[in-house]
């Protein structure tokens, strides 16, 4: 037994107890005649005291050698602390040490192992095992575990069964790029790592499992944007004999439960919005509805004058910045520069000051009178003291630009209250989206998503118009989950593959097993998947997922700690019947 | 809402309720004027009744079309069943159907979807989604879920944190063969899929996580023996500041809890046996101790006569088969043939009949008298009526042969009672084993296992003699878990790598991160891993793991349902900087 207690559990009631503790030296203060050491483990910090009068001389000497992050074991007596620290759970006591063993020495850590560290991202990742000792990272991992347990217990109580689906599956060119795994036993052939267990969970529904879930790793070999990981974790769910309403209800239940259990936040029924409405009101299919600044479309009230920029635009749209009339001219110019940056790409921006006296002052006063501007204020719900910002251009681009501006302003004006949790269902997504590059339709969700049944007859004649029984769960401007009712009819699935440019042979080669399965009694079914890394980060009140992943990879997909990926032996390649074909 | 109730929940108390059910047609009996249909879902079976007098004519017509495994929805009234079926939970009632919707038709299944199916292994795997509808498979998957939940909740309550370790890691030539994953973004480099999260869980201990667990997929690219899978699931655990005794105690607790919760079996303290003792008494490091037939070593009482076979043998060893004296000469000859098969490889076998009158009759009466044979009976604990079977040769081979014979006889004599659960700790494994092929030592457990501290000074001088703080948990003759106290000292780890034939450069290239970590304050730590597939199968009373895995692979590592692995596009290969180098 290395210890009788953890470093987080001793209280005043333990005074006079003989204890054995083990842990890391957080810091030590040596006053010569007295040495205090903060001993740390996962559970907390306990103060140790060595003093000339009461501590054996050899132990006192040894204590003087202790450096930061040394691993030690001490025996001693719990005594009352003279100057209590009420901010510490163990702040009423300290340990008068009678014996000290150095279990392992430690080199000076390359960054301070403190809540606020001096280590940059790169060095922290290289020595991630030291980074994990810091409370912010440690607590994030403990938090992740807690959320996972709550999810599992909730779904299990609701009758869901966690089923492990395989990791070595088959590559399909549809969707994102697969990671592949050469097979040694099947020459020239490859497995793929799953981008999601999609087809397997559907087969489990065909197999009668009725309610499935899995917290599962998924893999995508994409060029990594910030805060994307090549391997990520999903809460993957599927139910049979359900309509969209059943799924929304069950997973609204799960999310409400998590918000309550984890955050103590009670949320009533989640609002719903169609995709079209979300795009129209927020220019975004995952709107943050914790604050206003809803879009006001201005075509009707801005395209009747000689301002050609607006007249030629597909969409003229504005938002009212609350209290924005206090912005100086210089500040507004900076905002205009901000939207004109290539990342946003607006050509320019019109603004209207809503004065306290009810008059308006705009950057386009040459073209628009007070009545016009009053109409704009009306459309954007601007009040006296606000600032109206207006963009124009093609619909999709302009919406995206104004949405980015809206989020940026909300951030600056601190309208995104981290204590508020505002979930939202976005429903009725389009089934398909047109891809200019390949000149064909792509599945907006995936090829297994069911068209709205009442639109099935338009599938070939007017595919772009079709809505899907597909839904996203949005929380504070982040998509935390998305799913759909699936196709369960072989013929509809075949028509869908055809629409997506698969020949019947390709469809059969890649998804023949699923289409076969649909012929043997497939029930209506649907599901949802939550991005678990993101969900945990949001519930944990963080913007970035990295601290909620024990060993994340960097933006080149590298694990800098273990230095992977790495070259492999020539013999390994030969066994796999492969040769390198390097371009460099 | 597709249904108001499941097919498993209606009882007499529901009589007269109007209900909606959905499910699969298990079978239908058409008497012309009356049709009964068994409707099945995950939760059970409910009998539907359609009759000429009370069912609308069109519904009656539709009911006649129903085939096996059709997916249907019915509305109707719960009525009392005339001939009740007390073997069915829903056997008191039936549904008088008023409306019927065919949700999906079904082709005739390629095998019967019944508890006892006519489908062979291959066809069942190809149509696994139909196989999963059968109770034996469905119940196995539900059972697996339940065991996983119990494990997670138990360990979580004990303070263990589930931490997800990465799947894309680095290949190491030590141990079994890795599956590798070419990296597109890091030209010419590869990830490997983990054979276990070993180094990561050790780094979590260095990182202060204190108690870690994970139910996690692991991967080994080995030639598959029966009942081995290229991907398999482990309950992986690690603890800091522990000695062997702490680990045994915690995981004995987990196992005892599972036996109690899942099987209702109470087991007191688990017995322990050293590796040496297990090999000596059972010829096996995972002995089934539910029955006797312990080995009796006979060198002392058999090597003093002129029987050269025994005199030249390193080991002469026997077992007493209880009641085996009833075996006919022909049966004994068959047993001799059995041990001489190449799979076992014995050269021959000597037997001694222990007659009821206290005399002995052996196949070597020419060499041994009654007193000699009485000594053999004494050494093997043979009683009157038993049969002593004796093998001889080199120690390791002879033990393995006799162990195989012991298990075979136990199987035939039904001594392996499936209702009895006999766990056993095997401890003090050797640190190393000598490999004749490579003429060097290999780690018996893995290179991170700690030698017994008191033997550290023999590490270079007498490596073959060193025992490790390594332990296996054995249940009914199966190794269900194994682990060790790890090395946490950089220098000891370096000596260990040296002993295993790593140059310092190789050790640094492959495990430098771990040796670095040991320099920054690594606590003493150790752990264990359970083979989850096997554990679940044993708890479920099955010999084979395949029905406890939703989508298993066959002995060539293929998923015959989705037909993976498969060739990939030339473009995919090019992106990965690879060329096929086929030998065929």
Description:
The structure is a homodimer. By secondary structure, the first copy, chain A, is of the alpha+beta class. Chain A has 3 domains: about 10-105, OB fold (Dihydrolipoamide Acetyltransferase, E2P) (Beta Barrel); about 140-270 and about 425-550, BirA Bifunctional Protein, domain 2, CATH 3.30.930.10; about 290-415, GAD-like domain (Gyrase A, domain 2). The first copy, chain A, has 16 helices and 23 strands. In chain A, strands 6-9-10-22-21-20-17-11 form an 8-stranded mixed beta sheet, sandwiched between helices. A 5-stranded mixed barrel of chain A has the order 1-2-3-5-4. A 5-stranded antiparallel beta sheet of chain A has the order 12-13-16-14-15. In chain A, β7 and β8 (about 190) form a beta hairpin. In chain A, α4 crosses α6 and α13 (about 490-500) runs antiparallel to α14 (about 505-520). Chain A is globular. The two termini of chain A are about 55 Å apart. The model of chain A has no long low-confidence stretch (mean pLDDT about 95). The interface between A and B is large, with 130 and 130 residues.
Summarize the structure.
The structure is a homodimer of 584-residue chains. Chain A is α+β, with helices and mostly antiparallel strands. In chain A, 28% of the residues lie in helices and 24% in strands.
Name the assembly state: homodimer
Helix count from the secondary structure assignment of chain A: 16
Number of strands of chain A: 23
CATH topology of the largest domain in chain A: BirA Bifunctional Protein, domain 2
Strand content of chain A: 15-25%
Task: Count interface residues per chain for the largest interface.
Answer: A-B, 130 and 130 residues
If you compute it from the alpha carbons, what radius of gyration of chain A comes out, rounded to the nearest whole angstrom? 30 Å
The backbone outline of chain A, from C-alpha atoms, is globular
Query: How far apart are the termini of chain A?
Result: 56 Å
Category from helices, strands and their pairing of chain A: alpha+beta
Biggest sheet of chain A: strands, sense, closure? 8 strands, mixed
CATH architecture of the largest domain in chain A, by name, is: 2-Layer Sandwich
What's the CATH superfamily of the largest domain in chain A, by name? Bira Bifunctional Protein, Domain 2
User: What is the topology, as strand order, of the major beta sheet of chain A?
Assistant: 6-9-10-22-21-20-17-11
What is the count of distinct domains of chain A? 3
Mean pLDDT of chain A: 95
Portion of residues in helices of chain A? Answer: 25-40%
Supply the CATH class of the largest domain in chain A. Alpha Beta
Low-confidence stretches of chain A are none
């Amino acid at each position: 037994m290395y210890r009788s207690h953890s470093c987080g559990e001793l209280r005043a009631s333990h005074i006079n107890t003989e204890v054995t503790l083990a842990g890391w030296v957080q810091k030590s203060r040596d006053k010569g005649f007295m040495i205090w050491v903060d001993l740390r483990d996962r559970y907390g910090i306990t103060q140790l005291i060595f003093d000339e009068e009461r501590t054996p001389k050899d132990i006192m000497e040894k204590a003087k050698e202790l450096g930061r992050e040394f691993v030690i074991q001490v025996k001693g007596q719990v005594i009352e602390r003279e100057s209590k620290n009420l901010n510490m759970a163990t702040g009423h006591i300290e340990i008068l040490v009678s014996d000290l063993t150095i279990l392992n020495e430690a080199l000076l850590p390359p960054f301070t192992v403190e809540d606020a560290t001096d280590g940059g991202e790169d060095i922290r990742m290289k020595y991630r095992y030291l980074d994990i000792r810091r409370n912010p990272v440690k607590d994030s991992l403990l938090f992740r575990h807690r959320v996972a347990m709550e999810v599992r217990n909730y779904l299990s109580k609701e009758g869901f069964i966690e089923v492990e689906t395989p990791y070595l599956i088959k590559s399909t060119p549809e969707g994102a790029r697969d990671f592949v795994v050469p097979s040694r036993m099947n020459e020239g052939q490859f497995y793929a790592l799953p981008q999601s267990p999609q087809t397997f969970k559907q087969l489990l529904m065909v197999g009668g499992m009725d309610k499935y879930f899995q917290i599962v790793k998924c893999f995508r070999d994409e060029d990594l944007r910030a805060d994307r990981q090549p391997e990520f974790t999903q809460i993957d769910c599927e139910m049979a004999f359900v309509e969209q309403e059943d799924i929304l209800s069950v997973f609204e239940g799960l999310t409400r439960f998590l918000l309550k259990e984890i955050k103590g936040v009670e949320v009533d029924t989640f609002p719903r919005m169609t995709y079209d409405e979300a795009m129209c009101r927020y220019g975004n299919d995952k709107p943050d509805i914790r604050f206003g600044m809803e879009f006001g479309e201005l075509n009707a009230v801005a395209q009747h004058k000689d301002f050609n920029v607006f007249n030629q635009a597909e969409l003229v749209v504005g938002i009212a910045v609350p209290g924005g009339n206090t912005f100086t001219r210089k500040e507004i110019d900076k905002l205009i520069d901000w939207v004109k940056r290539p990342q946003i790409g607006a050509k320019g921006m019109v603004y209207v000051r809503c004065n306290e006296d009810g008059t308006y002052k705009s950057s386009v006063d040459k073209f628009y009178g007070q009545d016009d501007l009053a109409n704009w204020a009306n459309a954007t719900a601007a009040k006296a003291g606000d600032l109206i910002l207006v963009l124009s251009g093609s619909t999709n681009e302009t919406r995206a630009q104004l949405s980015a501006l809206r989020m940026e302003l909300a951030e600056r004006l601190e309208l995104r209250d981290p204590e508020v949790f505002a979930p939202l269902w976005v429903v009725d997504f389009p089934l398909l989206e047109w891809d200019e590059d390949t000149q064909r339709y792509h599945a907006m969700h995936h090829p297994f998503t069911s068209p709205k049944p009442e639109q099935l007859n338009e599938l070939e004649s007017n595919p772009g118009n079709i809505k899907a029984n597909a839904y996203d769960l949005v929380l504070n401007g982040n998509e935390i989950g998305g799913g759909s009712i699936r196709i369960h009819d072989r013929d509809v699935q075949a028509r869908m593959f055809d629409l997506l440019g698969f020949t019947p042979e390709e469809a059969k080669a890649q998804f023949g097993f699923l289409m076969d399965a649909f012929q043997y009694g497939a029930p209506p079914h649907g599901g949802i998947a939550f991005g678990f890394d993101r969900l945990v980060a949001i519930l944990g009140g963080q913007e970035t997922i990295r601290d909620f992943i024990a060993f994340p990879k960097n933006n080149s997909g590298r694990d800098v700690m273990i230095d992977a990926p790495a070259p492999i032996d020539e013999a390994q390649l030969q066994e796999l019947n492969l040769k390198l074909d390097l371009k460099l």
